[in-house]
Specification:
The structure holds 2 protein chains of 2 kinds.
Chain A lengths: L2 H32 L8 E2 L2 E2 H31 L5
Chain B lengths: L2 H22 L5 H6 L6 H12 L2 H14 L4 H25 L4 H8 L3 H33 L4 H51 L4 H4 L11 H11 L12 H16 L2 H4 L8 H19 L2 H16 L16 H8 L3 E3 L18 H5 L7 E4 L3 H4 L1 H4 L4 H39 L5 H24 L8 H22 L5 H23 L26 H18 L6 H10 L5 H4 L3
Antiparallel strand pairs in B: 1-2
Helix pairs in contact in B: 1-8, 1-19, 3-8, 3-13, 4-14, 4-19, 5-11, 5-13, 6-7, 6-21, 7-8, 7-19, 7-20, 7-21, 7-22, 8-14, 8-19, 8-20, 10-14, 11-21, 11-23, 19-20, 21-22, 21-23, 22-23
The chains are: A mainly alpha, B mainly alpha.
Chain lengths: 84, 588
């Protein structure tokens, strides 16, 4: 594989990691903690959406993120011919 | 059959299973011993990672921690799961591609420096040894409560079992026992949780029950819990009553600390391919989430259960009398983890927040909260008794608590022994050692590590409760940034990495010792551990995040006035960034 395509592969990887990290931070530090007051108006079972994100939603989002990243990378590996 | 006999059967059967697996999965080579010959199925590795990761603290203490504070302790839930996203995307696939056996091995080779390797070995040993003390004491507590043996005997039995399967099987034996231990612990955790959720809300899924209607009051469970807690003078359960800033920093410290713990990272060396490392991280989090989404439900429901047990007719009614208190309270009072004191001598238990007493307490002149001690650990262990479940569920909880403690202890012991036999002996002291010699050295190091852990478990240093914070702080501030820089910064050189690790390590240790005492010796702290004295209001427990930032900053500043990494190292970094060719690096 040429250096050029190694670079392009790595750039694409870093780009998707950045996107995933933004969502990772948004659901936990964002919805679960800092932005919770903004979600206070959305009731969920006796409390609000921010509490749900802090105790359930962020964990579920983390799982989705990892499996999304895995399939995305499997496709990217094949596209660039770097799969094992 | 007596409860003791039931507990003995459950614990004995699970131990026999672990030893059986050990004999079946003996290690024949160093590759077997360190990395199970890289032949572990990614889903199996996910379950083993979950057991490796979920310690006595996750199984026994976490639900109680959440119940004690409510929303504020959601930090543990997000922090101890969010680290897996970092592992899956930033560390695990590239470390698997690199194809070595230990974390210091990566740092030493990538930064072409024995000094870097030694710094990594030292941080690994400090964090893993402090962490293993908690597991051994946890196993001792579970033994003494459920099997009516004293703490010392319990601990010796536990280390004997770990000795058999860890020394014999190494990573291979540990992997398959961890798989079995995961099954035991998740069943033990889920069954009482389903029953308590059914009891309170009619919903069998605790994750949904937490947000469902409380059958008895006809309104949402969390609303009822908030109301009764406020009536007793406590903060409401779902509100934020702490510093948002520290909540963010603490959660971040737990996340990057999790991703930097060597005993977790080495689990990803056992899968066949780079793509499997990503898959495995996903499955690990699925298996972890099965416990971590249930724990907050157990916490809230058990808290409500305990309050309604003590106040059967509500805060305005008659409190529970000492005479009529249920059997589980008697049982746990004997362990010293639960204590009542009839301060006003009326034969009734008044449980409330004496710092903010409700009106009735003032009117009737109560003399203080009469449930003077309720250890957080009781919550999960006594859950089946509180929910009046049959005896076999209690036996299951005993086996589950021990599985959680032993699986984590084994993972830590492997990280310790491989750092000694592979990094210290093979890579630094005696490079000419044969494969057989190294395997023997690994087994001897393992035996020593178990002996040391047992000794420390029997004579826990006074700071046992603080050490987990130290372990996470060190992992966050030293290893995580160094590994990440090694992958994501091609030019990072050895001086930068070493300066970064030392700055991260020392700043974190200094900050923690300043407030918690030198080596945690009470009275030697230089500043009182209160928010007014903290630097910018940062709690010592949350400092790992700051240590990590200092590590990154110091590394880049050093790099800016030293020569960048040599060309062959930069090529090495390029090669670990792509999955292709992982097989070739294995026997390097």
């Amino acid at each position: 594989m040429s250096d050029k395509s190694t670079d392009a592969y790595w750039k694409a990887n870093v780009r998707i990691i950045t996107i995933c990290m933004v969502i990772w931070a948004l659901v936990s530090f964002g919805f679960g903690i800092v932005l919770r007051p903004l979600l206070a108006g959305i009731p969920v079972g006796g409390t609000d959406l921010g509490f749900w994100f802090a105790q359930q939603g962020s964990i579920l989002t983390f799982i989705v993120l990892i499996f999304f990243y895995r399939s995305y990378m499997n496709r990217l590996d094949r596209e660039f011919g770097v799969e094992e | 059959m007596s409860q003791f006999a039931i507990n003995l059967i459950f614990v004995g059967a699970s131990f026999a299973l672990y030893i059986g697996i050990a004999i079946w999965a003996r290690a024949g080579s160093t590759s077997d011993f360190y990395a199970a010959s890289r032949g572990v199925n990614p889903v199996v590795n996910g379950a083993a990672t979950a057991a490796d990761w979920m310690s006595a603290a996750s199984f026994i203490s976490m639900a109680g921690l959440i119940a004690a504070v409510g929303y504020g302790n959601s930090t543990f839930l997000m922090g101890w799961t969010g680290g897996y996203v970092l592992l899956a995307m930033l560390l695990a696939p590239y470390l698997r591609k690199f194809g070595r056996f230990t974390v210091p091995d990566f740092i030493g080779d990538r930064f072409y420096s024995q000094t870097a390797r030694l710094v990594a070995v030292i941080s690994l040993l400090v964090m893993s040894i402090t962490y293993v003390i908690g597991q051994m004491t946890g196993a001792g507590v579970a033994f003494s409560r459920f099997l009516e043996v004293d703490n010392t005997t319990g601990l010796l039995i536990a280390s004997g079992v770990v000795f058999i399967y860890a020394v014999l099987g190494g990573m291979k034996g540990i992997t398959y026992t961890q798989l079995a231990q995961y099954c035991v612990l998740i069943i033990a955790y889920t069954i009482p949780a389903v029953f308590i959720s059914l009891n309170l809300t009619g919903n069998p899924l605790p994750q949904l029950g937490l947000f469902s209607t409380h059958t008895e009051s006809g309104q949402p469970l969390l609303q009822t819990l908030n109301e009764v807690m406020m009536e007793l003078g406590f903060n409401d359960y779902t509100g934020n009553h702490g510093s948002t800033f520290n909540m963010v920093l603490f959660t971040m410290s737990l996340m990057i600390g999790t991703a930097g713990l060597p005993h977790v990272i080495i689990r990803f060396f056992t899968v066949p391919k780079v793509a499997d490392a990503r898959t495995s991280a996903g499955w690990a989090l699925v298996f972890i989430a099965l416990l971590y989404t249930v724990a907050p439900a157990v916490g809230a429901m058990a808290r409500l259960n305990i309050i309604t047990t003590l106040w059967p007719d509500g805060i305005q009614g008659e409190p529970l009398s000492f005479e009529e208190r249920p059997d589980w309270m008697h049982n746990w009072e004997q362990t010293g983890l639960l204590r009542f004191e009839d301060k006003n001598g009326d034969g009734l238990i008044q449980y409330y927040n004496a710092a903010n007493p409700p009106q009735r307490a003032i009117d009737e002149g109560w003399e203080g909260n009469e449930m003077v001690l309720f250890n957080n650990d009781i919550l999960v262990l006594a859950n089946p008794e509180i929910a009046q479940l049959p005896g076999w569920v209690i036996g299951l909880i005993a086996a589950g608590g021990l599985a959680a403690a032993l699986s984590t202890a084994a993972g830590l012991l492997l990280a310790i022994s491989s750092a000694v036999s592979h990094d210290l002996i093979k890579k630094m002291i005696n490079p000419g050692i044969s494969e057989k010699g190294e395997l023997l050295a690994a087994r001897i190091s393992m035996a020593f590590a178990i002996a040391l852990a047992t000794y420390l478990g029997l004579n826990p240093p006074g700071f046992a409760a603080q050490v987990v914070a130290l372990a996470f702080g060190l992992a966050a501030a030293s290893l995580f940034p160094a590994i990440m820089l090694g992958i994501f910064s091609k030019k990072m050189n050895s001086t930068g990495a070493i300066v970064g690790m030392l700055v991260g390590l020392l700043s974190t240790v200094l900050y923690i010792f300043t407030y918690l005492g030198w080596f945690f010796i009470p009275g030697t702290n230089m500043l009182p551990n209160t928010p007014d004295n903290w630097l910018f209001g940062i709690s010592p427990l949350s400092f790992g995040t700051v240590g990590a930032i200092l590590n990154f900053a110091a590394a880049y500043i050093t790099l800016s006035f030293t020569k960048e990494a040599p060309a062959e190292i930069q090529e090495l970094v390029e090669s670990i960034r792509v999955p292709k060719g992982a097989g070739a690096a294995v026997d390097h």
